[in-house]
Amino acid sequence: MVKPFVPLLLLALLVGSAPLFAQELDQKILQSRTLFQGLSDDLQVQMWAAMSQGGPVAAIGTCNLNAGKVTEAASKQGVTLGRTSLKLRNPKNQPDPWERAMMEEFERQKASGVALEELEKGEFITQGGKKTFRYLKAIGTKPRCLACHGAVIAPEVEDKIKALYPNDLARGYKEGDLRGAFTLIQVLE
Ligand code: HEC
Questions:
Q1: For residue 127, what is the DSSP state?
Q2: Which of 10, 79, 179, 189 could join 74 in a cystine, given CB atoms 3.0 to 4.6 angstroms apart?
Q3: Which residues form the Tll0287-like domain (predicted)?
Q4: Which residues does ligand 1 sit against, CB inside 6 Å?
Q5: What's the pLDDT at 1?
Q6: Tens digit of pLDDT for each residue in 144-170?
Q7: Which residues of the chain are under the pLDDT cut of 70?
């Protein structure tokens, strides 16, 4: 009788590696969530400083992740950080197919009652032949976002936004809407 040594070994590996894999994913999700929490807080602080000094016109340049130190440092280490949306202000924030599909999924989950704060997705995918960690975290619309993303925008704010973003679609939002998402891409091999 052949001893089932190899199948048992394979089974042990399979069972043993499953939690490891899950842990690696959970860890990356947690790290990404924490990273974006920090970036989001910094962004809000800058935006509020500018808003309280000069109102929304003065704050227009502060709703921006791209110029940040963390974003730059991440990019040097092969990690891309960004923001995206299904209705864009800056066309450079265009979602790729994975991001678009996930934001559509966020909209479905939100419609079925899931809280905005819970909407996130992290997974390993193969992209361009390389194992890649992808993470997306929903960004909700708060009352303070409406000055620049709401249905009614003051004429002086409107003029400046129009001049900078002639194809702006990121308006007409209400409090609690899904404004967009933070996105992280890390190519692993
Ligand atoms: C003072 C005006 C202003 C306020 C207030 C504001 N934004 Fe923005 N927002 C902008 C501008 C301008 C851009 C385009 C930035 C760029 O060029 O990437 C933008 C872009 C974004 C994007 C990137 C996707 C896109 O459409 O290009 C997200 C997400 C976003 N804003 C969310 C928010 C949220 C959430 C709030 C409230 C917490 C908020 N914004 C408040 C002006 C504002």
A1: E
A2: 79
A3: 62-184
A4: 56, 59-60, 63-64, 83, 85, 88-90, 93, 139, 141-142, 144-145, 147-149, 170, 179-180
A5: 52
A6: 999 999 999 999 999 999 999 999 999
A7: 1-5, 9, 12-21
For residue 175, report the distance from its CA to the centre of ligand 1, in Å: 14
* Distance from residue 144's CA to the centre of ligand 1 (Å): 11
Atom 35 (ligand 1): residue with closest C-alpha?
A: 141
Q: Give 73-82's long-range contacts (Cβ < 8 A, gap of 24+).
A: 78/186, 78/187, 79/184, 79/185, 79/186, 80/183, 80/184, 80/185, 80/186, 81/35, 81/36, 81/39, 81/182, 81/183, 81/184, 82/182, 82/183, 82/184
Nearest to 138 by CA among 85, 65, 64: 85
- Amino acid 65: pLDDT: 84
Output the pLDDT for position 144.
93
Cβ partners under 8 Å of residue 128, min gap 6: none
The atom number, within ligand 1, closest to the CA of 43 reads 38
Q: What is the pLDDT of residue 69?
A: 82
Report the C-alpha gap between 44 and 118 in whole angstroms. 20
Number of the ligand 1 atom closest to the C-alpha atom of 90:
27
- Tell me how crowded residue 146 is: count the other CB atoms within 10 A of its CB: 17
pTM for the full predicted model: 0.90
CA–CA distances in Å: residue 106 to residues 81, 103, 115, 181? 19, 5, 10, 10
